[in-house]
Specification:
With about 325 residues, the protein is α/β, with parallel strands linked by helices. Helices cover about 40% and strands about 15% of the residues. It is built from eleven helices and nine strands. It has a nine-stranded mixed beta sheet. Strand 1, helix 1 and strand 2 form a beta-alpha-beta unit. The protein is globular and about 50 Å long. The relative contact order is 0.12. The mean pLDDT is about 95. Pfam families: ApbA (PF02558), ApbA_C (PF08546). It comes from Amycolatopsis plumensis. Its EC number is 1.1.1.169. It is an enzyme of class 1 (oxidoreductase).
């Protein structure tokens, strides 16, 4: 089996290193200092489960890699529409694309046979079909990441917690390709269950992301601080309750209570969310898939979601103003 990791950042390099350790042929596609360090020293993983070093092939040119069986997308969802040039050399007739993204994926309403919204495009994450044009629906394998990693320094990945990468086909089939990928990930030391309905996993994770990510960027607070501040905790609970209602209206039942989800976040401690980290690093914020698409689904399903709408408005403005020089209009 041949796997390319397109976007070998913190999560992508960790998955690639694990797959390589398990015996899979892996090609990491990375850039700049991280690329040079991995080429010279391999990928060093520092983990409470045991440190290890893997030395897969590393490049910044996908044409060096050629066609693969699986492309693991380690890119942020807001760059999917523009990754076609990098992706094209990796695609053969049966290549699957595994999108390890946060939030609502572009394929969300694909494969929902008999659902009233089957085939509906989520414009927030697939505007005008621009993502579907690059990432064909037939290639998509969903992936929900329950894993936290950071780039400690170029070529060095610190694994903080979690090893679960839930996999699933949009139509719910327990497919041969999912089983093959799952086995390879398990061989590398990861948990990789193949789910008959990955959308439930999407909503369980999204309940936390939809509230904590934008609020952390707006307040500069850690997970624990948001949970311990009474008024903010109440706002988080309201946003989660609205999200649960939207999920159920869309045909899913995540099966987790709001309080349990908040308590789980509190136990993470003084951790900065990915959106706050992106804000501090001057990177674009991953707003569309994490909260914008949820607001869009509220409209499609007729669920009132005032708290989500207000927070979405505020974080969208922050994303805009953070890119505008002070004094500009």
């Amino acid at each position: 089996m041949k796997v390319a990791v397109l976007g070998a950042g913190a999560i992508g390099a960790y998955v690639g290193a694990a797959l390589h350790r398990g015996g899979t042929e892996v090609h990491l596609i990375a850039r700049r200092a991280h690329l040079a360090a991995m080429r010279e020293h391999g990928v060093r993983v520092l983990s409470p489960r045991g440190d290890f070093t893997a030395r897969p092939h590393v490049t910044d040119d996908p044409a060096e890699v050629g066609e693969v069986d699986f492309v693991f997308l380690g890119l942020k969802a807001n760059s999917y529409a523009s990754c076609g040039e990098l992706l094209a050399p990796l695609l053969g007739p049966e290549t699957a694309i595994v999108a390890a993204q946060n939030g609502i994926p572009w394929w969300y309403f694909h494969g929902l046979h008999g659902h009233p919204l089957e085939g509906q495009r989520v414009e927030t994450v697939d505007p005008g079909g621009s993502v579907t044009a690059v990432l064909e629906l037939r290639r998509a394998i969903g992936c929900v990441v329950y894993c936290s990693t950071v780039i400690e320094e170029p070529g060095v990945i610190r694994h903080l917690e979690g090893t679960r990468f839930s996999l699933g086909e949009p139509d719910g089939e327990i497919s041969a390709r999912c089983k093959v990928l799952s086995a390879a990930m398990i061989a590398g030391g990861l948990k990789a269950p193949v789910e008959a309905d990955l959308r439930n996993d999407i909503w369980i994770k999204l309940m936390g992301n939809v509230a904590f990510n934008p609020l952390s960027a707006l307040t500069r607070a850690t997970m624990a601080q948001m949970c311990e501040h009474e008024d903010t905790r109440e706002l988080v609970a309201t946003m989660m309750t609205e999200t649960l209602a939207i999920a159920r209206a869309a045909g899913c039942d995540p099966g987790v209570s709001v309080e349990k989800r908040i308590d789980g976040a509190w136990r993470v401690g003084h951790h900065k969310t990915s959106m706050l980290q992106d804000l501090e690093a001057g990177k674009p914020l991953e707003i569309d898939a994490i909260i914008g698409a949820v607001v869009e689904l509220a409209g499609l399903t007729g669920v009132p979601a005032p708290a989500l709408r207000y927070v979405h408005a505020a974080i969208s403005l922050l994303d805009h103003t953070s890119k505008v020089p002070v004094g500009s209009h």
